[in-house]
């Protein structure tokens, strides 16, 4: 089915669409926006629970990017207020309560990534960034109960998947967490009033919260607003993507190097290449179709393009091409150590096993021994079978040493003592 608006058509063709509160109305509003009418203004919220977002959040940033590419106005909502409560979705336990100092530091760190994907400014279709602490910090509890709380029923709240799952598993959900959906719905009401926002976007796991916000705006201000969700970042096997053996795939370069970020995309399964090219890059669909048709070993060409294009969007074209060159040299037996991530240690580990643990390549001395026994560890490209020995003398002399785990994990390590 062909839709009138480029926005809805793009969402469907590129795999961003999961469900909408009113798809026909969304299509009409987007079409009007694209024809020079009132801009379709959509928001996504990001809580400040860590110093960096990860690739699961990147899918949401790409959704805002699609909106702006189609003439809409994105609002990046920082959750300076809602982070104090914590979203209970997809969790079997309460999030830790963060101090204001930690929240502020996380927010400052997270904010840096958005300008790489969105155009911010004062124009009618430029993206803007706001913080829900602006209004949530000023909310009076009794006023919230009387004006907002009366529009929510406990029946609906406990029927939401994010709550029902916790109750079914007899995992406690605090009253603090239970209030999160009220605050998120109130965000939509405030954004509607302040900025004319008429669309909330998010992952499919946010559907219940989004519907609550749409209903609240309709009941309180008698205004029609819309919601749309996209699938979570999953592989074709139905497993969530975004983690490696060494942890989350962070977006900030100080938490995950451009080389390791490139490697994450390079190592996806063959069947995931085409869907990820559609959702996570700006490559034309006909070019993606050509790459998806590659068979056998040629699919690796498409994976390299996926890795390079995604890394270029986040870290810049130069960093992406450097990561590609480093990987090519590594797989071909060449050097290119300058492109590898570097780990600096403040003290000398007691053994080679401890060195691999300290750099994060393995989790324990026991794992180091097992990997070495199978020939999976190398120092300066030489296989090591005994990790009980002392660390390389070169480290004590101020030189960098290359450590490898298997064929795809390489780092440089040095001692800063």
Automatic annotation (TrEMBL):
InterPro entries: aa-tRNA-synth_Ic, Rossmann-like_a/b/a_fold, S4_RNA-bd_sf, Tyr-tRNA-ligase, Tyr-tRNA-ligase_bac-type, Tyr-tRNA-ligase_bac_1. Catalyzes the attachment of tyrosine to tRNA(Tyr) in a two-step reaction: tyrosine is first activated by ATP to form Tyr-AMP and then transferred to the acceptor end of tRNA(Tyr). Its main location: cytoplasm. ATP binds at residue 243. A motif ('KMSKS' region) lies at residues 240-244. It comes from Candidatus Phycosocius spiralis. A motif ('HIGH' region) lies at residues 48-57. Keywords: Aminoacyl-tRNA synthetase, ATP-binding, Cytoplasm, Ligase, Nucleotide-binding, Protein biosynthesis, RNA-binding. PROSITE patterns: S4. CDD domains: TyrRS_core. It catalyses: tRNA(Tyr) + L-tyrosine + ATP = L-tyrosyl-tRNA(Tyr) + AMP + diphosphate + H(+). The keyword Cytoplasm applies. Pfam families: tRNA-synt_1b. Homodimer. The keyword ATP-binding applies. L-tyrosine binds at residues 43, 180, 184. Belongs to the class-I aminoacyl-tRNA synthetase family. TyrS type 1 subfamily. This is Tyrosine--tRNA ligase. Its EC number is 6.1.1.1. It is found in: Cytoplasm. Gene3D superfamilies: HUPs (3.40.50.620), RNA-binding S4 domain (3.10.290.10), Tyrosyl-Transfer RNA Synthetase (1.10.240.10). GO terms for molecular function: ligase activity.
């Amino acid at each position: 089915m062909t839709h009138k608006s480029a926005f809805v058509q793009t969402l469907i063709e590129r795999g961003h669409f999961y469900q909408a509160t009113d798809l026909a109305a969304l299509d009409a509003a987007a079409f009007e926006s694209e024809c020079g009418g009132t801009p379709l203004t959509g928001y996504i919220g990001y809580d400040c629970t860590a110093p960096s977002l990860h690739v699961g959040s990147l899918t949401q940033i790409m959704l805002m990017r699609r909106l702006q590419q189609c003439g809409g106005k994105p609002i990046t909502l920082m959750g300076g207020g809602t982070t104090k409560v914590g979203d209970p979705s997809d969790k079997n336990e309460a999030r830790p309560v963060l101090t204001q100092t930690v929240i502020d530091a996380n927010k400052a760190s997270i904010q840096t990534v958005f300008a790489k994907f969105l155009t911010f400014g004062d124009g009618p279709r430029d993206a803007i960034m706001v913080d829900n602490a602006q209004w949530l910090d000023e909310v009076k509890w009794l006023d919230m109960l009387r004006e907002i709380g009366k529009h929510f029923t406990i029946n609906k709240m406990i029927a939401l998947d994010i709550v029902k799952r916790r109750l079914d598993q007899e995992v406690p959900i605090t009253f603090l967490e239970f209030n999160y959906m009220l605050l998120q719905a109130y965000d939509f009401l405030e954004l509607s009033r302040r900025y004319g926002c008429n669309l909330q976007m998010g992952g499919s796991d946010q559907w219940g919260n989004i519907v609550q916000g749409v209903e609240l705006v309709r009941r309180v201000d008698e205004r029609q607003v819309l919601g749309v969700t996209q699938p979570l970042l999953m592989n074709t096997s139905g497993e969530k993507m975004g983690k490696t053996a060494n942890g989350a795939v962070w977006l900030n370069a100080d938490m995950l190097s451009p080389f390791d970020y490139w490697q994450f995309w390079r190592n996806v399964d063959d069947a995931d290449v085409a869907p990820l090219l559609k959702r996570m890059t700006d490559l034309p669909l006909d070019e993606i179709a050509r790459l998806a048709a590659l068979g056998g070993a040629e699919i690796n060409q498409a994976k390299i393009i996926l890795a390079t294009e995604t890394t270029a969007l986040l870290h810049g074209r130069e960093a992406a091409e450097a990561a590609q060159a480093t990987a090519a040299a590594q797989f071909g037996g060449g050097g290119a150590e300058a492109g590898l991530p570097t780990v600096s240690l403040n003290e000398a580990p007691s053994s080679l096993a401890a060195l691999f643990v300290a750099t994060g390549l393995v989790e324990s001395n026991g794992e180091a021994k097992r990997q070495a026994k199978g020939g999976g560890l190398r120092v300066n490209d030489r296989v090591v079978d005994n990790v009980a020995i002392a660390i390389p003398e070169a480290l004590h002399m101020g030189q960098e040493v290359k450590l490898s785990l298997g064929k795809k994990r390489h780092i440089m390590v040095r001692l800063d003592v």
